[in-house]
Amino acid sequence: MFKENLANLRAYSPGPSVEEIKRTYGLKRLVKLDSNENVYGASPKVGEAIAQAALLPALYPDCRDQDVRSELSWMLNVREEQFLFGSGLDEIIVLISRTFLASGDNIVMAWPTFYEYYCHAQIEGAEPKKVPCDADGRHDLSGMLAAVDEATKVVWICNPNNPTGTYINDRELADFVEKVPEDVVIVLDEAYIDFVTAGDFPRSLDLLKDHPNIVVLRTFSKSFGLASFRIGYAIGQSRLIDEIDKVRPPFNNPRLSQVAAFAALQDIDFMKDCTRKNQEVLAMTTAFLDDRKIPYYPTQTNFIYIKAGDPKGVAEQCKKKGFLINPFQDGVRITIGKMDDMKELLAVLETALSETSSKPSI
Ligand SMILES: *Cc1c(COP(=O)(O)O)cnc(C)c1O
């Protein structure tokens, strides 16, 4: 009775709750640095706007997210019909997969990268082709290009990449985009764009005019601190956006999520302040790691990937000391916390790295 292509998938496992972990380990405090949420929260304007909003619980929300749409259109200088809103980028990834993929197709993606690209290709019966990141944790663009074939429908570029934090620059991306066939959709997932400081980071919106096959993804979950509201968006040429809109459930963004996102856009200073603090703590973090010759990938985001011989063991030790971080295959991904938390965590991490196994060399 079950679909064959779901056989090898597992449901997302959130792990034990914060309260459960605190109880298990006898902790007074557990600092969540495992999901790249905004550790500074959201603008106070969001709370005010929510409190003042008429609740209207019996009415369906605006199916076009008109207020947020107009505001973003003005801010980003992109036409209103070029936006598509989703219940987080998670849903937009589902919608893109649903729109373009069928059995017999394939997608090309980096590895490691955001897992949802993989998951939804499988659900649609398409083959996910994983192209390993290079030794510097960056997308191997020539490898990805070589993986594109007749059956490729979507290429996923996570820029900057989650979990490695590395980025593709403007020249590399422009070159890549020129070489990918025009009938292959190129998705640029820019969930972390507001944290980027590199001067040569691509201006992806400028690519849209000449490339009807590009979709850019952005979210309110990270830099704006609205992960709980589940709102993100895609930008592309309207022909492509209209196609994805055919598979979108019409009322996919609750009214209060739209109110929250609109309010967050009225306080860009708050968001900028968060990204500035992130820079400060990140600088402290990399100085600490450099000092001790602990290898990591340079990051353009609010998280950092630190190499570890026994990632699970390191994450477990950090958890016992009150810090939740995320283990991957050959390292741990840590959200850049507040200054004091991060200093404390780095001390815990240093001990954990030396106790679990010898440090891998770069
Ligand atoms: C967090 C994240 C998302 C999902 O964001 P939501 O808008 O909260 O669903 C998508 N892509 C990447 C790379 C992310 O890190």
From TrEMBL:
| Catalytic reaction(s) noted | L-histidinol phosphate + 2-oxoglutarate = 3-(imidazol-4-yl)-2-oxopropyl phosphate + L-glutamate
Q: What is its EC number?
A: 2.6.1.9
Q: Which residues form the Aminotransferase class I/classII large domain?
A: 30-348
Signal sequence range: none
**Record pathway:** Amino-acid biosynthesis; L-histidine biosynthesis; L-histidine from 5-phospho-alpha-D-ribose 1-diphosphate: step 7/9
A single Pfam family it belongs to is Aminotran_1_2
Q: What keywords are assigned to this protein?
A: Amino-acid biosynthesis, Aminotransferase, Histidine biosynthesis, Pyridoxal phosphate, Transferase
As cofactor, the record names: pyridoxal 5'-phosphate
Q: Which residues carry this modification: N6-(pyridoxal phosphate)lysine?
A: K222
The record ties this protein, via PROSITE patterns, to: AA_TRANSFER_CLASS_2
Matching entries from InterPro entries are given as:
Aminotrans_II_pyridoxalP_BS, Aminotransferase_I/II_large, HisP_aminotrans, HistidinolP_aminotransfase, PyrdxlP-dep_Trfase, PyrdxlP-dep_Trfase_major, PyrdxlP-dep_Trfase_small
Top enzyme class, one word, equals transferase
Q: Which domain of life is it from?
A: Bacteria
Q: Name one GO biological process term.
A: L-histidine biosynthetic process
Q: ATP-binding among the record's keywords?
A: no
Gene Ontology terms, MF aspect: histidinol-phosphate transaminase activity; pyridoxal phosphate binding
Q: Which HAMAP family match?
A: HisC_aminotrans_2
Family listed: Belongs to the class-II pyridoxal-phosphate-dependent aminotransferase family. Histidinol-phosphate aminotransferase subfamily.
Q: Cross-referenced PANTHER family, in alphabetical order?
A: HISTIDINOL-PHOSPHATE AMINOTRANSFERASE, HISTIDINOL-PHOSPHATE AMINOTRANSFERASE 2
**Quaternary structure (record):** Homodimer.
Name this polypeptide is given: Histidinol-phosphate aminotransferase
Q: Which organism is it from?
A: Sporolactobacillus putidus
